[in-house]
Every structure is written in C-alpha cells, then in structure tokens.
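Aim 2 progress update. The chain analyzed this quarter is reproduced below.
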Amino acid sequence: MTISSDSTLITVRNLCKVYDNGFVALDNVNLEIKRGEILALLRPNGAGKTTLISIICGIVNPGTGSVTVDGYDIVDDYRASRSLIGLVPQELATDAFETVHTTVSFSRGLFDKPKNPEFINRVLKSLSLWDKRDNIIKELSGGMKRRVMIAKALSHEPRILFLDEPTAGVDVELRKDMWQVIRELRETGVTIILTTHYIEEAEEIADRVGVINKGEIMLVEEKAELMRKLGEKQLILELHQALPDLPKSLDVHELTLADEGKQLIYTYDTKGERTGITALLSDLNGAGIKFRDLKTEQSSLEDIFVRLVNKTS
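Predicted structure tokens:
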C-alpha cells in the first residue's frame, strides 16, 4: 500500500463501537491527527477514550467505520499500522523482576526489530533512565516506572506515541518533568496523542485539544483558537466603596457582585463585535459608582471544558 505523504497521519472515519451488552462506547467518531503534533484528548470518566485508543492501536476490534495510520488500514494492514505505534497505558504493567535495560530490549524484539543496543541506550538516556538501567524495576519509584513504560513503547522506533494519563499519580514536580520529556519526543518527530484529566497539562503542552464525551468527539481545535473562540473575558472592577446590592439601572449588564460588595465582575464574549464595556462604564458613572482599579481575566481551558461537557450532561 502507498504510504501517505500529507500532514494527516491518523484518519478515523465514522467509527462506531457497541459492546455486546448494548453499551455505545463510540458514536460516529471522526478525527484526523496531524503528523508531528501533540494532541490532548480531554475527557470525563466513561467518555470512550480508552476504546478509541484501543481500536487505533489494534487491541479492540472496531465496530463500523475505518481507521488508517499513515495510509495503512488498521485491519487489513494490521502489522504495518501497529509497528508505527507505541502505547503507554495508564496502568503500570512492567516486568517487576527484570532490569530496566532487559525489559526495554525485550519490548523491541516483540516487534521483530533487530537488536540495536545503541538505540536502546539512547532511549534510556533521553528518559533519564541510564543510571537506572541495571536496576530491578520493582525497586523504582512510580515516576521512574512511568518512564520505563515510555521507553518500552519507544523501543521499536514508532512514529506515533499514545500516552494514556501519562502523569496520573505523580507529584507536580515530576509531572512538569514528564511534560518536558513529551516536548523533547515531539522534537524528534514523534506524533503524540495523550489523554488527560489534568486540564493544565493540555493547556501547557498540547498543540491541539480534543474533547470526547459520551462516545462522541465534541470538538478538536487548535488550543489558542479554541480559547479565542470559546473563551470569555471578565472585567473586574475594584470599587471605592462596597455595595450592599446592585442598582436596577445596571441589570442590563448582568453584573456579579463579589468580595463582600467590593468587586463588580462583568463577563463578556471575546467573539462579540462589541464588548459593552463603554456602555457599562457610562452607566456606572450615571449611578454614581466609582472604582479605583480594574483588570481583565481570560477564561482558562478548564472553564471551556466544563462548559462544553455540561452542555451534554
């Protein structure tokens, strides 16, 4: 089969999956993953992300629809498509009594790749595992075991890496270290798809963000564009004097009184042609309300995610 040369690396078309008990895990999913990007899939529990990843990786049979990986159909060209993919599952499943070097080398052999000690050594060094190469895996910390899982997934030189909750259960400092590892992997040309419930993780490292909920892809968007299109801004005014309540003349602006009456919060749509701020300030002046300071705040990715998911709840 001819290998695709365009920017789309993985194509999912009209993918559905219904389990024997009638549970609809995926409902007409369409998704294109670009070559060389970091795509973060945000999801609440039971959203369908594990089924989606498992189908792309050839672990679960698809129901209807199609998936191609670099032009290879995941069913008709299973071995070719699977050889392009590395998978790091959420569960830490390693050979507890093997050394780090042995288990990573063994994983390479599972894909019929010839021995390449230099490459394995390079992977271990890139993941800060070189000094641990002769350690028994059960002796490692949870964070180091997670790195071993990534090393195993990279051992056969895949061009695509799926990371299912890569920083689950690790502390904040180690999480940031893992973010740097992910960035460095992308710089080597690896396309990375990660699932996460840490919104700040997606906000920090992803190029694009997808939201999956109840078996459907709700959206996939460039991170900055998503925040521009769906984000809201808040104008926060620090008042000279606290207000017990808001004058009726300001009802049109849908203001919120906060901080025991010392703050006025005005929320406006960044997509709107007019913000309404000029009219608000004029009405505040007319009501005799004076403020000593003001600032604006942009919606976070978490705000956007919660809003989207709540729409389908």
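Residues 231-299 form a domain with the Alpha-Beta Plaits fold (CATH 3.30.70). Residues 197 and 311 are 18 Å apart (CA to CA). These observations will guide the mutagenesis experiments scheduled for the next reporting period.
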